[in-house]
């Protein structure tokens, strides 16, 4: 009986060690979970665990790897195996890992820059009239820039890519553009939109140039 006890000890030690390691990893993740991005704040691809989270962790927003040293700033469902992406700022102009960043300037403009410092995408909200105070990810999956009064001055729901979430309208000049293929988030050849007669139409196009929001 004593021999069996001793034989179990190494196994118990291994199991406990694994549990402590998992707990440490979860704790590290929790410490880097952001509920907002304030003026002057940044996110980079190198901060893998520094992501914006919705209040109940349903959605995450951060840098999503789509290839060898290729990243999009995206929103995805947090608790899916393959991180189902529902929105991306730069689906057709990916950035590199090194020195790229999403930055909320002190003037309120939110921009994404590549390794060489060039601006890949921006919200054009850098003026006193917008009075931006912070960036939040809502429980609906909507990424919003808020002013000091709590009002929305820009939101990702106004610029869908290929996915509509519950409570997200498809109206005005907005449109959905298909993905190029499985495993890709790049723009494809089919466009779904509501025309001026309020008729929902699907159009095939030989090329699509994503607009800079």
C-alpha Rg (nearest Å): 21 Å
Give the CA-based shape: globular
Total strands: 16
Major sheet, described briefly? 5 strands, mixed
Structural class: alpha+beta
Terminal Cα separation, in Å?
71 Å
- Count helical runs: 1
Strand line-up in the sheet with most strands: 1-4-5-6-7
Explain what this protein looks like in three dimensions.
The longest helix is centred in the first third of the chain and has 30 residues, at 2-31. It is globular and about 40 Å long. It is an alpha+beta fold. It has one helix and 16 strands. The protein has one helix at 2-31, and strands spanning 33-34, 37-38, 42-43, 51-53, 59-67, 70-77, 85-88, 101-104, 110-113, 119-122, 132-137, 143-147, 152-155, 175-179, 187-194, 200-204. Strands 1-4-5-6-7 form a five-stranded mixed beta sheet. A four-stranded antiparallel beta sheet has the order 2-11-12-13, with no helix packed on it. Helices cover 14% and strands 35% of the residues.
Quick overview:
By secondary structure, the protein is of the alpha+beta class. It has a five-stranded mixed beta sheet with strand order 1-4-5-6-7.
Write the layout of secondary structure elements.
Elements: H1 2-31, E1 33-34, E2 37-38, E3 42-43, E4 51-53, E5 59-67, E6 70-77, E7 85-88, E8 101-104, E9 110-113, E10 119-122, E11 132-137, E12 143-147, E13 152-155, E14 175-179, E15 187-194, E16 200-204
Parallel strand pairs: 1-4
Antiparallel strand pairs: 2-11, 3-8, 4-5, 5-6, 6-7, 8-9, 9-10, 11-12, 12-13, 14-15, 15-16
